[in-house]
Amino acid sequence: MHRPVLLVVAHGSRDPRHAATVHALVRRVRSLRPGLRVETAFLEFNVPSVPGALASLEAEGVRDVVALPLLLTRAFHAKTDLPAALAQAPSRLRVHRADVLGPSPLLLRALERRLYEAGVRPADRSSTGVVLASAGSSDPEAIAVIADIAREWRHTGWCAVRPAFASASLPRTEDVVRELRELGCARVAVAPYVLAPGFLPDRIARGAAGADVLADVLGPAPEVARVLLERYDAARMPLPSALGA
Q1: What are the tens digits of pLDDT across the range 144-202?
Q2: What's the pLDDT at 2?
Q3: How many whole angstroms separate alpha carbon 162 and alpha carbon 180?
């Protein structure tokens, strides 16, 4: 019995760093699950498009696909753009949709990995305030998820953790950097809760000018790759064609 193809669906960007990072993450996923076919598609700006990728898979004889949104929250792209793209799938192709990546304890570990790589020491946690900087959304559900993650992360020993948003919502990164200074945190670190470089991550970086540390985007962190596989496994479990794979 075959395993369904994993189709990783990224947002896409005019910034070439975005697609390069997505492809690096997909290579990491392949390395963790040899034998699993993993393909990539984009909602906009980059190729292949989701309908184009699905049509190509169907033409090859593929019958089962798990479409996994490379998104951290259930906001507009997950609720509207992706379903519209998947609705254009060929009729003979069975497409099963995986959940978005966040929230997940593995993503918190990836955030901490990036902070440590940027120079924060584990011994500095109690004196370091962290700005959890996300892209932002007009969707209240997505904003509430980011706030919940910040509260959860605070209880792991950081001086403070506060959410910030690069668009659509407030506060901005620079505002939260000042807030944490005023709160008395000896150091302030900005942790971008974004998957790949681009316009909004660059805005986060500009807002982090007053911080002591700016971590890298999550990118192809091994923890992120493991979340993708968790979401894939959860989505394919009900598939009769996947039993025994």
Answers
A1: 999 999 999 999 999 999 999 999 999 999 999 999 999 999 999 999 999 999 999 99
A2: 78
A3: 8
User: Could you give all domains of the chain from N- to C-terminal order, each with its CATH number?
Assistant: 5-102+221-242 (3.40.50.1400), 105-214 (3.40.50.1400)
The Cα-based distances of 93 to 6, 78, 234 in angstroms read 13, 20, 19
Q: Distance of CA 112 to CAs 109, 145, 217, Å?
A: 5, 18, 11
Indicate the pairing of strand 160-165 with strand 213-214.
Answer: unpaired
Contacts of residue 44, Cβ cutoff 8 Å, sequence gap at least 6: 11, 12, 81
Q: In one letter, which amino acid is 188?
A: V
